[in-house]
Amino acid sequence: MSDTNDTTEAEAAVGNARAFLSDFEDESLEVQHGAIEHAISELQNAKRALPDEN
User: Fold this and answer.
1) CB–CB of 13/39 below 8 Å?
2) CA 2 to chain centre
């Protein structure tokens, strides 16, 4: 996979994380917890999609 595709995947994952946290304050504690867990997963996906900095 090329660096451009990696960056695009990372950007998409960050966008997904943001979407999980939109309107966050209006949700129940249980829904907030789930949104945080999903956002963390998406950010981990973004990190994996970025090229190594070796």
Assistant:
1) no
2) 20
Q: Output the six-digit token pair for 12.
A: 């998409």
State how far the Cα of 5 lies from the Cα of 7, in Å rounded to an integer: 5
| 8 A C-beta contact, residue 50 and residue 7 | yes
Length of the chain as a residue count:
54
Alpha helices in 1-54 (DSSP H): 3-20, 29-49
| pLDDT one-digit tens code per residue, 12-49 | 988 988 888 888 788 899 999 998 999 999 899 888 88
